[in-house]
Specification:
Length: 318
C-alpha cells in the first residue's frame, strides 16, 4: 500500500469517474486503474462498483476512503512540519474564494501577499460555496473565503468583515433620484438575481425578507431574471432590465458620488448605487480552514494581508 494508491482512490471517490480521477492526479487512466486494482487485491475488498455509466463507492470502500484521506492529510502535515522548520511561510497556499468575493477582494489581496509574504504565493480558485466546502473536506484546498451562513462542517472559522449591500438601479429609474432606499421600496421592483447555486442569491433572499415574502406573487421575485455573475447582473441593470443588490466591495469607486460618499468621483452613466436606510442588509465574510491544517502562520499571514486591504465601506472584525 502506497500514498499514491491512497491518493488515487480518494480522487476516484470524489470524481465518481476513473477518467476524471486520473486527470485530477495527472496520470493516465490505465495507470490509475491498475494501481487501484492492485490495492483492492492487497486488501481483498472491493472499493468501487463499476458500471457503464457511473462509479459508486462500496460501503466498506467509503470507510477506507475516509481513512485514506486522513492518512494523506497526516503525510502532508509531516511535510509541513519540515517546511516550517526552515520557513513557516514557505510554500504556496491553496485558497478558495466564492464568486461574489473574488473579483473585488483578490486584486488587492494578491498585491498584499506579494509585498508581505512573497515566499507564500496564493494558488487561487473561485467556486460555489458547496464546492469549496467539499474541497476543504478532501484537502484539495487549504482554506477558503466564504460568506455566512453555510452548513456546519466542523471547520475552523475566523470572521473577517461584515459587508453591507447596496441597491443598484438604472440611472433612468424613478429611484435613481433618491439618496437612499428602503427594502420596502424594492418590493414591487423587478429583481435581478444570480442563478441557482450562487450563495449570494440565498443571502439576498435571507437578508431581504421583503423579497422572499412576495416570491409567490405576480410581482418581485417571480418575474425576476437571472445572471451568471454579479458583473453580468450589473450590465442587465444598466440595460434597464431591473434592479439588484450588490456587496459594498462590488461598488465601483466612481459610483460613490451617487450615494454622496465621494463627491469628487465622476458620475457613472448607467447605474446608480443607493445605500439602504433603516435596516441595512449585510453579509458576514469569514476565512475557513480544516482544523487539522497545521500551517497556523500561513493562516495568520493571510488574515493580516486581508486586513491590510483597503476594504472600503465594510466593518472589519477581529
Amino acid at each position: 500500500m502506497t500514498l499514491t494508491e491512497l491518493k488515487y482512490i480518494v480522487a476516484v471517490a470524489r470524481e465518481k469517474h476513473f477518467g476524471r480521477g486520473a486527470e485530477a492526479c495527472h496520470v493516465s487512466q490505465p495507470t490509475l486503474s491498475v494501481a487501484i486494482k492492485k490495492l483492492e487485491e492487497e486488501l481483498q475488498v472491493k472499493l468501487f462498483e463499476r458500471s457503464a455509466n457511473e462509479i459508486t463507492v462500496t460501503p466498506l470502500g467509503e470507510e477506507i476512503v475516509r481513512q485514506a484521506q486522513s492518512v494523506l492529510e497526516q503525510a502532508d502535515s509531516i511535510r509541513e512540519i519540515a517546511r516550517r522548520g526552515k520557513d513557516p511561510l514557505a510554500g504556496s497556499l491553496r485558497l478558495g474564494v466564492i464568486y461574489t468575493i473574488g473579483p473585488y477582494l483578490l486584486p488587492d489581496l494578491v498585491s498584499q501577499i506579494i509585498e508581505k509574504t512573497p515566499q507564500m504565493p496564493l494558488m487561487l480558485q473561485e467556486n460555489f460555496t458547496v464546492k469549496l466546502l467539499e474541497e476543504l473536506r478532501t484537502g484539495e484546498i487549504d482554506c477558503a473565503i466564504l460568506a455566512e451562513p453555510f452548513p456546519d462542517t466542523n471547520l475552523a472559522i475566523a470572521p473577517l468583515y461584515d459587508e453591507p449591500f447596496m441597491a443598484a438601479v438604472p440611472s433612468s429609474h424613478a429611484l435613481a433620484a433618491r439618496s437612499s432606499v428602503t427594502a420596502e421600496e424594492l418590493k414591487k421592483q423587478t429583481l435581478l438575481l444570480l442563478g441557482t447555486g450562487h450563495c449570494f442569491r440565498d443571502h439576498v433572499l435571507e437578508v431581504c425578507p421583503e423579497f422572499a415574502r412576495f416570491s409567490s406573487s405576480a410581482e418581485g421575485i417571480s418575474k425576476s431574471f437571472e445572471g451568471s455573475s454579479l458583473e453580468t447582473i450589473k450590465h442587465m441593470v444598466a440595460a434597464g432590465m431591473g434592479i439588484t443588490l450588490v456587496p459594498r466591495l462590488g461598488v465601483p469607486k466612481a459610483a460613490l458620488a451617487f450615494s454622496g460618499q465621494d463627491t469628487s468621483a465622476e458620475q457613472p452613466s448607467y447605474i446608480r448605487y443607493l445605500p439602504f436606510e433603516g435596516h441595512v442588509p449585510t453579509r458576514r465574510v469569514v476565512l475557513a480552514w480544516r482544523r487539522s491544517f497545521t500551517r497556523y502562520e500561513a493562516i495568520a499571514a493571510l488574515r493580516n494581508a486581508i486586513y491590510a486591504c483597503e476594504l472600503p465601506g465594510v466593518i472589519r472584525l477581529s
